[in-house]
Amino acid sequence: IIQSADHHGWDYGAGLAWATAVTFAMKLSFTAAAQKWIGEPLGERFWVRRCVCIHTPYMRAVEQILQEGMSVAKVAVLIGGPDWPVAVLCGILKLPLVPVLIGVSPVLLQSVFPCVLSGTLLYYENLPASRSGGIPAVARYGLAEASLLVAVALQFGTGLVAFLCVQEVLERDYDRLSVPRPEDRKLQELDEAEENLSRQLHIAIGWTRIPVGLRATLVLGLLCIEVSLLLLHGPWHDLFGVACFRNFDLMTSVKHDFGGNPLAIVRPLGWGAFALAGLSSLSLVPYYTYVHRLQAEIALGEAEPIAKAKLGPATQA
User: What pTM was computed for the model?
Assistant: First the structure.
C-alpha cells in the first residue's frame, strides 16, 4: 500500500494514513467475517463445540468475560488473544457483532499503527529525506525498529492482561464453572470415553510394543530432521561459502532480484534440507497409520485385553 501510494505521488503522511486506515478496515472486516460466516454457522455443530472445548471451565471463564459488558477484561481478551480463534469463538457464542467490533477497535493503537509505521519507515529508509517527511535515514531505521518493538510489547502486554483476567474469573467461579451444564453433558461423556481410550492406546503403543520396522522408520525420520536442521542453521556460509538461501529482506523484489521466480531464493543446499525434512514427515505416515488402526481395534474391543493386562488391577479400577 505504501509503495503504491508513493508511486502515485502521495506524500509520506498521506500514504501512512491511508495504509493505516486500510489495515484497520481489514482487521475489522476479518473479525466480522470470521464471527458471522464461520463461527455462527459452525457453532451449532456438535463436533465443533467439542473441538473448541466450550464446556471446559477455562473456556467457560472466557465465555463469561466475552458476554459481559464492555470492560478492560473483555477488550484484553478480544485484542490480546489470537485473531482467528477469538473471532470464531465470538460467533460460536452468538455474541452481537457491533460490541465485538467496538471492543476490537483499540487494536488500531495496539498493533495496527505501530506495525504500519514500521513498514513505512523501512520502505522509505533508502529514499531521500524529502520524500519521508524530512526524517533522516538513520532516524527512520531506528524509529522502524522502535515502533515494531512497541507493537510486540503491546501485544504481549494485552495477552498477559487477558490471561490474568481469565485466571481471576476461573479461580473466583471455579466451583460453578466446573459443574456441567445440561447442554454440555454429552460433551463431558465423550471426553471421559476419549480419556479412557487414550489411556489404553498410550500403553498399547509403547516403544517396546510397536513393530521393529516401525521403530527403525521413526529413528530414520529423527535422523533426517536433525540433519535438515543442521543444514538450515549451520554456519556453512562462513565455513565453505555455501548457504541454504539467497540474501533477501523486506525491500527485496522477487521480480527484479529473482527474475520473478520466488523459489530462486532457495539454493541447492536449502533444497537438500527441505528434502530431508520431507522424508522425516513421510516417516510418520506408517506410524500414524498403525496408531489409527490400533485405536480402532481398542474402540471395538479387539485390543482391550492387551491393554487391560498391561494396566493391572489397580489402574483398571
Answer: 0.73
